[in-house]
Amino acid sequence: MNRKDYTQKWKKNNREKVLKSNRAWRQKNKEKLKQIYKDWRDKNKEKIKEYRKRYKELHPEKMKKSRKKYKLLHPDKVKESSKKYKLLHPRPKKERIIKEPKKRIKGKKIRFEIFMRDNFTCQYCGRRVPEVILEIDHIKPQSKFSEIRLKKDNFTTACRDCNRGKGDIILQEFN
User: Fold this and answer.
1) Domain containing residue 114
2) Interatomic CA distance for residues 32 and 43, integer angstroms
3) 84 and 112 assigned to the same domain
4) Are residues 45 and 112 in the same domain?
5) Distance between CA 141 and CA 137 in Å, rounded?
6) Sign of the alpha-carbon dihedral angle for 135, 141, 146, 151
7) Which pLDDT tens digit goes with each residue over 45-77?
8) CB 132 within 8 A of CB 122
9) CA-CA distances (angstroms) from residue 14 to 47, 54, 62?
């Protein structure tokens, strides 16, 4: 067994001791380590720049995430110049198309007014309240005429069977 194999075996068996001794040495020699890292960075500036450039090209989304994370964790370290730049050159906001939610006929008052107007009878078959369940129906279907779907003139009283049977057919076509 050569010396290299022996040291590796010893490190495996005494892992905790090695880690503790490494930590202790780092604590004692903090300033020395800082100087070593600084010298290394100064010596290899061009290599580091090249590496970062290559990494940005290969992983642009990771770079964005890491920058955002850094800015969130260290807001005090964000340069004033970048803050000023953002103020002077704001990003144009994307226009979002906001769809209006479908409005339903709310309130029993409106429903009751339509039932009263139509005398509580189905306008298609003529049956009255006790024998059928009445519903509000769109004369011109809301799927084809969305702009007038909430106007009272477009509502009529219909029994459940007629309303389901009519579907999205226009009144003139139904008769």
Assistant:
1) 108-174
2) 16
3) no
4) no
5) 8
6) negative
7) 999 899 888 888 888 888 777 777 777 777 776
8) yes
9) 36, 39, 37
Q: Output the six-digit token pair for 30.
A: 């903090």
115 with 134: CB under 8 angstroms? Answer: yes
Q: Is the pTM of this model over 0.85?
A: no
Number of domains in the chain: 2
Q: What are phi and psi of 158, to 5 degrees?
A: -145, 150
Specify if 101 maps to a domain. Answer: no
Residue 115 lies in a domain: yes
145 shares a domain with 84: no
Residues 12, 84 share a domain = yes
138 class by beta-carbon count within 10 Å (0-12 exposed, 13-18 middle, 19+ buried): buried
pLDDT value at 19 more than 80: no
Three-state SS annotation for the chain: CCHHHHHHHHHHHCHHHHHHHHHHHHHHCHHHHHHHHHHHHHHCHHHHHHHHHHHHHHCHHHHHHHHHHHHHHCHHHCCHHHHHHHHHCCCCCCCCCCCCCCCCCCCHHHHHHHHHHCCCECCCCCCEHHHCCEEEEECCCCCCCHHHCCCHHHEEEEEHHHHHHHCCCCHHHHC
